[in-house]
Design goal:
By secondary structure, this protein is α+β, with helices and mostly antiparallel strands. It has helices at about 5-10, 60-65, 95-105, 195-210, 220-245; strands spanning about 15-20, 40-45, 70-75, 110, 120, 130-145, 150-160, 165-170, 175, 185-190. It has one domain. Strand 6 and strand 7 (about 150-160) form a beta hairpin. Helix 4 packs antiparallel against helix 5 (about 220-245). The structure holds zinc ion.
Length: about 250
């Protein structure tokens, strides 16, 4: 009988949330994806809170408002317009981004919804000028096959990326609008993963499938950073096992 790993002994379970940018412009306007430092203007905002449909204020938003933080936004001419500044309503959704999300859904064996509806997810750290992130649930119920076992994919969302942080101060943060509105796929797995090695395999498999979509941005994205973290976790686990054995 094989010896149990420390993770099996502790009953380790985890799921992953992986983000991947799409390289097809912005999600709700025609600005370019350009994160270089060019000519830019700037403005500032304070967070305010309004009641939702239930007539209640969001507690996290109220807590953040009490800090009275002043958020400054740098708006590059080449990669932002009135949509990113929240001075103009969003334009029609980027068709290529929706197509990329549907391709991803099919690659994961998911069931896309007949109707895709964008919702507002409250953002309280100032990383979006509007105070919310536009997110659409595209599909549910998929899977990836890893060597150490199948991992279910619970949801696939298409959403807009947030502002890039430039500096974080006690009384105010500075953000750059160049990244705001870039289409982002959010892949969430079921908590089927029972070891760091399986988590790494799952993340690699998700990354591999996503890279077969034409509009996926190449290079080290958020999934790459997830992988580095998982490699570190696996290395620490090996070290721990070796120390236990000696
Ligand atoms: Zn724009």
């Amino acid at each position: 009988m094989s010896e149990k790993t420390p993770y099996e002994e502790m009953g380790f379970r985890c799921g992953l949330e992986i983000h991947q940018q799409l390289a097809c412009g912005k999600l709700f306007c025609s600005c370019a994806q350009d994160e270089s430092n060019g000519a830019a203007s700037s403005f500032f905002r304070f967070l305010s809170v309004s009641k939702g449909e239930t007539g209640e204020e969001d507690l996290a938003a109220s807590f953040e408002k009490a800090k009275s933080k002043r958020f400054e936004y740098v708006a590059p001419v080449s990669s932002s317009c009135l949509v990113e500044c929240d001075e103009e309503p969003p334009h029609n959704v980027n068709d290529d981004a929706v197509k990329g999300a549907l391709q991803a859904a099919l690659l994961f064996g998911m069931r896309p919804f007949d109707c895709i509806q964008f919702m507002r997810k409250i953002v309280v750290d100032g990383s979006n000028t509007s105070g919310f992130q536009r997110t659409a649930l595209v599909a549910r119920g998929g899977k990836v096959e890893a060597e150490l076992g199948r991992v279910g994919i619970s949801t696939l969302c298409l959403e807009e990326d947030s502002c890039r942080i430039e500096s974080r101060e006690h009384h105010g943060d500075v953000y750059n609008l160049s990244r705001l509105g870039i289409p982002l796929l959010e892949v969430s797995t079921e908590p089927d993963i029972t070891s760091p090695r399986q988590a790494r395999e799952c993340a690699e498999q998700v990354g591999l499938l996503l890279r077969s979509i034409s509009s996926v941005k190449r290079g080290l994205g958020l999934s790459g950073r997830t992988l580095m973290f998982l490699w570190k976790a696996e290395a620490e686990w090996r070290l721990r096992v070796r120390r236990t054995c000696t």
